[in-house]
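Appendix B. Raw example, untouched.
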Amino acid sequence: MSTYSLLQISLDQTIDRQSLADASVAVKSVARADCAHLQRDLFGIVISDLPLDDAQIFQAELKRRNFLTELVADDELPVLHDEFSIQRIEIEAESLSFADAMGRVQSRAMEELVFVAGGFLNHSKMKSILVKGTVNSQVGRISEFFPELERQNLVVEASEFRLDFFFCSAPHRLRASVSAESVVFFHGRPL
């Protein structure tokens, strides 16, 4: 059975979570609880893997809320390969050279470059930290407290700048990401 996706007509479009959730009520394969995730990750593809009837109903409900989408069969969408995490970028006369943290290099002809997309991204991620605590050790009637490091996982907000290079041949996407924990070198200079 074929499945379908709804794609945004424009990346400038927005829809609030409540409107998205209200639209999902008419569709049996879109759970209202999933709308928070759909709204947060709204970067081109609204939703995928819907049966045709559900995709058409959801599209009509979104249109009623002034959020226009395009219906596309999932097997017609191009598959993006896993990104190659870039650490070094070099631009030559007719080619681009990219290297990852392991020193592996990919050179691509400039004529294969379709477009470059870049922007800031804020997201939540898990971070493990060491916290100083105490352990109560009881021997007989005597309690002793010993210092101990304890690992705690926290959800923290992270900010990064991503630069995605899209090519007309495989691998179709190469990504550079700069954050507080990473660096990208352009012509030998850190960014």
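End of appendix B.
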